[in-house]
Amino acid sequence: MEDDRRVWPPGSQDPEAPWNPRLRRTVERSAPEPFTEPLPPSARLYGAPTAPRRAGGGWRARAGAVLALVVAGGMVAGLVVVVLRLAVPERAQAARLSDAAAGVTIPLPEGWREDPVPPVTGFTSAARSAGGALVMARPSEPAGSAPGAAARATAEAAELYSRLLLHGDKVTVVEDRSIAIGPYSGHTRSLRAEYKDVVNQPAYLRVMLLTKPGRSVVVVGLLQPDQTPSRQALEAVMTSVR
Question: Which keywords belong to this entry (predicted)?
Answer without folding.
Answer: Membrane, Transmembrane, Transmembrane helix
